[in-house]
Amino acid sequence: MTRAVELVVLDMAGTTVRDDGAVEAAFSAALEAVGVPAGSPEREDVDAYVRDTMGQSKIEVFRALFPADGVAEKANQVFETAFASQAIEVAAPLPGAEEAIDKLRAQGRRVCLSTGFSAATRDALLERLGWTDLADLVVCPADAGGRGRPFPDMVLTAVLRLGITDVRAVAVAGDTGFDMLTGRRAGASVAAGVLTGAHDEATLRAHGATHVLGSVAELPAVLEELGGAVFPRCS
């Protein structure tokens, strides 16, 4: 006997949401605020780390970069303020994202949107997009005890809140390696990388992607094709 995917956890920026560079601009503002301006000797290494860790909780990125007391918190606050301001102006659904979510729910699956942003930024983004009722659940690190990607907590929080029967009945989709790693650590059977955001196919595969798609619009058909034969039921 096999069991189909019951829950799909979808990343936001880069996967379902186009931000037109708002994330990068917000990181730049944050780095400027804590003394790492463009053109400074350390900026190239810092920018590389930011790119490599796209998808991870933003406060954790800043804590890794700036362990001194209060610096990470200052950088994160500037980031959140800058991103919220930018997102209100430029954020829009990626082509086919809303339709994909509607199709997934029509297939009988629960859908959770997840983000590494703060709760306030998440809520502002949902209001901007008109997505307050689009998914069954929307989670950020604060909803999962404070730990974001690559920890499995946000996916597992969705599993618990939505009453999913088995972690293997979960599909995770995102545009970064950390989305893939999070899904695999949570026990998801499907970790679908999409090529509309930060990372390329090689990076997504290296972090555990089971599928790599052109965009999230392809996901409903992929899951429908898998049907019930996603994983064997435990004996």
Structure description:
It is a single chain. This protein is α/β, with parallel strands linked by helices and 235 residues long. It folds into 2 domains: 149 residues, HAD superfamily/HAD-like (Rossmann fold), CATH 3.40.50; 68 residues, DNA polymerase, domain 1 (Orthogonal Bundle). Helix content is 44%, strand content 14%. It contains 10 helices and 10 strands. The protein has a 6-stranded parallel sheet with strand order 6-5-2-7-8-9. Helix 1 packs antiparallel against helix 4 and helix 4 runs parallel beside helix 6. The radius of gyration is 17 Å and the shape is globular. The C terminus is likely disordered.
What is the terminal-to-terminal distance?
10 Å
Total beta strand runs: 10
What would CATH call the architecture of the largest domain?
3-Layer(aba) Sandwich
The fraction of residues assigned to DSSP E strands is 5-15%
Q: What is the tally of helical segments?
A: 10
The CATH class designation of the largest domain is Alpha Beta
Report the major sheet.
6 strands, parallel
| Total domain count | 2
Mean pLDDT: 89
Determine the CATH topology of the largest domain. Rossmann fold
Q: Quickly give the structural class.
A: alpha/beta
| Oligomer class | single chain
User: Overall 3D geometry?
Assistant: globular
The CATH H-level superfamily of the largest domain is HAD superfamily/HAD-like
Low-confidence stretches: 229-235
Computed over alpha carbons, the radius of gyration is 17 Å
Helical percent range?
A: 40-55%
Order of helices and strands: EEEHHHHEHEHEHEHEHEHE
